[in-house]
TrEMBL record:
Residues 41-213 form the Oxidoreductase molybdopterin-binding domain. Residues 235-351 form the Moybdenum cofactor oxidoreductase dimerisation domain. The keyword Metal-binding applies. Keywords: Metal-binding, Molybdenum, Oxidoreductase. Pfam families: Mo-co_dimer (PF03404), Oxidored_molyb (PF00174). It comes from the Bacteria. This is Sulfite oxidase. Its cofactor is Mo-molybdopterin.
Amino acid sequence: MNHNGKPNLTTRSIQPENQESPIHFIKKWETPLSYFYRRNHFPYPILNQYNYWLQVIDGQSKKRYIHLTELLAMPTSTLTVPLECAGNKRANFSPKVYGEQWEAGAISQGKWTGVPLRNLLNDTELTMEAQEIVFEGADLGKKPGTEGIVPYKRSLPLEKALHPDTLVAFQYNDQPLSVKHGHPFRLIVPNWYAMASVKWLRKIEIINHRFSGPFQTDDYMYYPNENNDQGEFPVTTLNVNSTIQQPLNYSILNSGTHKVEGIAWTGRGKIKEVQVSFDNGQTWTKANLSRSGDSDYSWIRWSLVREFTNIGEYTILSRAVDSSGRVQPDSPYWNQKGYGYNAVSKVHVKVE
């Protein structure tokens, strides 16, 4: 907490800057910019006038440039979308894995305004051979295991790239994107982990083969075996997940009535229900759900009022169920790089 009694971001690293949202204290549907988590692989790029031009290269290697002012004049879409780092909750894996030890705050949500990517590509030649679209950010630096300086680059399969809700965004919560969150434009890819939502977007290229950059085929891959890379597959769709926001883990509560509350989200369908247990999973009770009315992608808020009459220790669990039938598992899907943690959310409390 700062001296005004307001929460702060939790610093995971300074260079590059990686900071966690105070998720347990976020009650708004739209995360205020100052509380939006920060995830970077490299130092922030130094931006100049050239960054206001977006280069588009079609399947015939023809280039064209779109200026921010052109983008602002196009028809726009506004979507409330949560962005979750693929490493969110990595600190909970057992055995431990290397990487930023995110707890539950590498997720934030807000209102993104931009131009559907497919509208930007209307004048672009999409050949029959086109397979993927590659997105390059202005951030670059040295990456372990690669030679020289590399930019942050990712690709999307054609179907996902051309979905009407995949946006080239230039506003967050009705304000221009901040420099720390991708100014002047960034990609927004709903339902996928946020590594796909490339910041400081400067180049879009249509290719007729699989892209194999280091942030595509090395990082952001599930490696399920501890001692080898067999069985690997890419990180894409958000897992069904929930977080208990209140009470905080290892809180001491007075006996009486308390509100248990949190958020839940998914990358497939919608959250159908959230179940809460006060006896370490022996019995479950459905929570009350509250939805944001303006988005198919928004997280839901859930809550349950519980009377704690007996003195003692309690383990509170939450698990979300989505409309595609996915349920949060008791144990996470362990993988070498610690992606996609979505085991049931758990807090311990003592009632005195």
